[in-house]
Specification:
This protein is mainly α. The chain has one domain. 77% of the residues lie in helices and 5% in strands. The chain has 6 helices and 2 strands; from the N terminus they run αββααααα. It has a two-stranded antiparallel ribbon with strand order 1-2. β1 and β2 form a beta hairpin. α2 runs antiparallel to α3, α3 crosses α4 and α4 crosses α5. The chain is elongated, with a radius of gyration of 17 Å.
């Protein structure tokens, strides 16, 4: 099963309406299921921020707010420590993808450094 299929399966079964509520009473998500959902939602948020960092363009803000609301709901059930661990895993994954120099600029860089990264990213895309 692909990650997308796994997440869709979990999302179909775990519904939020101000609380973590199961759509299927026979389905009991494991802590690992919830951990993977948090990573998925946070990965989507991180990718949006990285798109902004690299290209100055990103998707809609509404999805990010929705994803954070899901993460916070899961945190009520799974706990703060488990969610923090999932977020840290995704951050380390994104750091490996970018490399240490770009990651440092992403995390602590100035506006000028970000502009320089965007210029180089666009040049690389346009050949």
């Amino acid at each position: 099963m692909s990650e997308g299929q796994f997440i869709r399966r979990l999302t179909d079964k775990v519904i939020s309406e101000g609380q973590l509520r199961l759509a299927d009473a026979n389905f009991q998500p494991s802590r690992q299921d919830l951990f993977e959902l948090v990573k998925y939602y946070y990965r989507c948020i991180a990718e949006r921020h990285l798109d902004w960092f690299l290209y100055g363009q990103a998707g809609g803000h509404n999805y990010e707010m929705w994803a954070w609301s899901r993460i916070l709901l899961i945190e009520k059930s799974a706990g703060e420590e488990a969610v923090a661990k999932a977020l840290e895993e995704v951050d380390r994954e994104k750091e490996r993808q970018l490399g240490p120099d770009l990651w440092e600029i992403f995390m602590t860089g100035t506006e000028e450094q970000w502009a320089d990264v965007r210029e180089k990213s666009w040049k690389a895309l346009n050949g």
